[in-house]
């Protein structure tokens, strides 16, 4: 694919597959080759692969104006960084923040290691570091959604608190030790079906139920993408990501000293908070960021 010269950071005139030239706030489209590590995915996507300290390839993407405050979005279980599509396609978000996301290991377009060593806390912190270094991010804000919030405990176990500017817990689990304390009985009941390697019927029904619990009325193409991200994850990776442990001391120390804490309830929101209450969610996050950047 031909690319015209960069106009400004992250804004490019790209040649589409129809041979027209269009301006996009995205990175060059790159090819993803099917390999054992990424579980046979062959695709093209905007973004870049960054290499984590243990060699795991992590798929990352940044959009917007890199001079704005940076927010790194960390997705939850099953559904990769595409979970945030509505945010990353929104000109209002893009006008006020530099948006960065990545498929955490075991998800989406990133490698999906299935050894216990690959799921030690430090490895997940190093994935974040690789994204930070690749995009030269300085003190980003970090938004953790759902079980993605636990990655912030990993990050702060290996870095001082001022490595990041602030934390946004979006319907999040702060650490693995709290997982089953904050999850709903309906979500807990999904565990066996998400982990089964012998009953396809059960896995299929359970993963569909998981998506429905995240939001019961998603736009069809997005719903299919959520289902697809579930299918590309090896069950062995699912088991490791649910059973992994971490040292919560550092994040609990940071939480104890919270400054400028703001707890905002999004009335009637589903687990996909930004899809349920897009305007309120956006205003809440961007206002808090602007006060703390
Ligand atoms: C990027 O953001 C900076 C800081 O707000 C601003 O000065 C600059 O004009 C922005 N660039 C574009 C292309 O919008
Ligand atoms: C989770 O709940 C159990 C009791 O149900 C409690 O013993 C434990 O301390 C809680 N863990 C956390 C991290 O809150
Ligand atoms: C597989 O799962 C389905 C749905 O949960 C269940 O009805 C069925 O009995 C299971 N089959 C076996 C062989 O366990
Ligand atoms: C957990 O981390 C704290 C520092 O944040 C450290 O003092 C403690 O020894 C660690 N615990 C374990 C079990 O490694
Ligand atoms: C929290 O954020 C909301 C939405 O931006 C704002 O209305 C509220 O005043 C804030 N509360 C505190 C305590 O800062």
How would you characterize this protein structure?
The protein has 293 residues and is of the alpha/beta class. It has a single domain (44-292), classed as Rossmann fold. The chain is built from 13 helices and ten strands. It has helices at residues 85-88, 91-96, 121-134, 150-157, 179-182, 185-188, 191-195, 200-214, 220-231, 235-243, 249-256, 273-276, 278-292; strands spanning 12-15, 21-24, 29-32, 43-46, 48-51, 57-63, 70-74, 98-102, 141-145, 166-170. The strands form three sheets. The chain has a six-stranded mixed beta sheet, sandwiched between helices. It is globular, with a radius of gyration of 18 Å. The protein starts with 11 loop residues before the first strand and ends with a helix. The model is unreliable at 1-9 (pLDDT under 50). Bound molecules: 2-acetamido-2-deoxy-beta-D-glucopyranose (5 copies). One 2-acetamido-2-deoxy-beta-D-glucopyranose (NAG) binds at residues 199, 201-202, 205. This is Putative oxidoreductase ephD. InterPro entries: AB_hydrolase_1, AB_hydrolase_fold, AB_hydrolase_sf.
Task: Give the helix/strand layout.
Elements: E1 12-15, E2 21-24, E3 29-32, E4 43-46, E5 48-51, E6 57-63, E7 70-74, H1 85-88, H2 91-96, E8 98-102, H3 121-134, E9 141-145, H4 150-157, E10 166-170, H5 179-182, H6 185-188, H7 191-195, H8 200-214, H9 220-231, H10 235-243, H11 249-256, H12 273-276, H13 278-292
Parallel strand pairs: 7-8, 7-9, 9-10
Antiparallel strand pairs: 1-2, 3-4, 5-6, 6-8
Helix pairs in contact: 3-4, 4-11
The structure holds 2-acetamido-2-deoxy-beta-D-glucopyranose (5 copies).
Residues 199, 201-202, 205 line the site of one 2-acetamido-2-deoxy-beta-D-glucopyranose.
